[in-house]
Specification:
Elements lengths: L1 E6 L15 E5 L6 H7 L9 E4 L2 E2 L16 E5 L6
Length: 84
Amino acid sequence: MKITFKLYATLQHLLPTGAVRNAIQIEVADDASLNDIVDQFRVPRELAHLVLVNGVFHGEAERDQRQLLKENDVLAIWPPVAGG
C-alpha cells in the first residue's frame, strides 16, 4: 500500500531522494508496523519522538502493532526538540 512518509527537523536528511517538503510517497507492506518503517529508513528509534498517523499520536507501546496504517495515510515523525 502507498502512504506519505514525512520526517522533520534533524531527521529530514534520512528521506530518500525525491522527497519534497519533507515528504515522500512510499510503498509499504499491508501489515507494516510503524517501527518497521522507522527501521527501514534508519531513523534511530530514540529520535522518533513524536510519531503521528494522520495527526494522531502513537506512543512507543503502539509502534510495533500491525495494520495501524491504511492506504493513503500520512506518517509523520519529529525528533525531540530542545529549548523553550
